[in-house]
Write a structure and sequence with these properties.
CATH architecture: 2-Layer Sandwich
Number of helices: 3
Helix content: 10-25%
Strand content: 5-15%
Shape: globular
Order of helices and strands: EHEHEH
Distance between the termini: 24 Å
Number of strands: 3
CATH class: Alpha Beta
Strand order of the largest sheet: 2-1-3
Structural class: alpha+beta
Mean pLDDT: 95
Number of domains: 1
Length: 123
């Protein structure tokens, strides 16, 4: 597992346990080399983003009980793939971001200035 610090170099805060999120399903946007999707952006879902994600092939709103996935709704926090967040930003539909719960590895893909534009918090 990569060291668990946020984009500010401080301890990574929990993103969500209801629904439980993260590559490791710990509630945090922790990552490791096996996390090819880099699920490191703690984002707050919106109807607009969920529709976009479904349109581009990743349906996050439909429950998938066979994977213990409840389906997401607007207001849920979820560890998004950094590249999907950047794609949503480029398309003008990026969700808000909890920076304190967004892993520093995100910065390999998304510039801090872009993340800050969607920040819920500025720490």
């Amino acid at each position: 597992m990569d060291r668990s610090v946020n984009v500010f170099g401080r301890a990574l805060e929990r993103c969500s346990v209801d629904p439980v999120t993260g590559f490791f399903r710990t509630g945090s946007c922790e990552t490791c080399a096996e996390d090819r999707g880099v699920h490191t952006v703690c984002a707050v879902m919106t109807e607009e983003f969920l529709a976009f994600s479904k349109y581009v092939g990743n349906d996050l709103s439909t429950p998938r009980p066979e994977f213990s996935f409840p389906g997401l709704k607007a207001g849920d926090q979820w560890c998004l793939c950094a590249s999907r967040f950047l794609q949503a930003h480029d398309e003008g539909v990026a969700p808000r971001v909890n920076l304190a719960a967004t892993h520093e590895r995100t910065l390999d893909i998304v510039p801090l200035e872009v993340l800050e534009a969607y920040a819920l918090d500025v720490s």
